[in-house]
Design goal:
This protein has about 200 residues and is mainly α. It has one domain. The chain is about 65% helix and about 0% strand. It is built from ten helices and no strands. The longest helix is centred in the last third of the chain and has 42 residues. The radius of gyration is 24 Å and the shape is globular. The mean pLDDT is about 80.
């Protein structure tokens, strides 16, 4: 939380006059505030989340052209519903797993999502630690490990969609480049051998 406050400083000179009174604590309190705001709106019957948005994390990696509906995220929906002026100015917003539970099934849904995420994390760890010669396990595992915090900051399964959309294409391009370089290396070795035979 302290780092959240320090991040808002524009220079180190402001550190001496830093006051925590009335100060936000970064995204930590924003996520809680989002959840409280959604809880109050739900109690007054003011929440209407389209199913395409509610479960958008599961098809976020698919191109919009392949979907029969408009693709959107819960953070975009939240901004458009509660803070359209900020959205019009191009602001972004963290949504949060707590807010996701509020608009969904509450504590039971949060427990189910957390349980599924825990099982997935255990499986990924076991999969990564299994002996293998495949090189791409490490970068994929590191990406998931570094960005797992997004499961609380955004939505539960958001890092998996990003892994499919960002990491897998990058790993494919790296593997393709390696194959092309290997083919070129074989070809140049063959030419060198032919030249040696011709010169003798």
């Amino acid at each position: 939380m302290v780092f959240g406050v320090l991040r808002t400083l524009e220079s180190w000179n402001e550190l001496g006059g830093l006051s925590f009174e009335g100060s936000g604590l970064g995204e930590f309190d924003s996520l809680w505030a989002n959840a409280v705001e959604l809880l109050q709106a739900r109690e007054f019957g003011q929440i209407d989340v389209p199913a395409a948005v509610r479960f958008g994390e599961f098809w976020a990696f698919l191109p919009s052209q392949l979907l029969p509906f408009e693709k959107s995220s819960l953070s975009d929906w939240f901004l458009g519903t509660f803070y359209p002026e900020d959205q019009a100015m191009g602001s972004g917003w963290a949504f949060g797993a707590i807010g996701q539970a509020v608009i969904g099934g509450g504590v039971p849904e949060a427990l189910i999502r957390g349980g599924v995420l825990g099982v997935l994390a255990a499986w990924v760890m076991k999969w990564y630690r299994a002996p293998t010669s495949t090189w791409w396990r490490l970068p994929l595992y590191l990406y998931l490990l570094v960005f797992v915090y997004q499961s609380l900051r955004d939505t539960t399964f958001q890092p998996l969609g990003n892994a499919v959309q960002v990491v897998l294409p990058a790993l494919f391009l790296i593997a393709l480049t390696g194959v092309l370089l290997d083919i070129r290396g074989h070809a140049s070795r063959g030419v060198d051998a032919a030249c040696r035979r011709f010169s003798t």
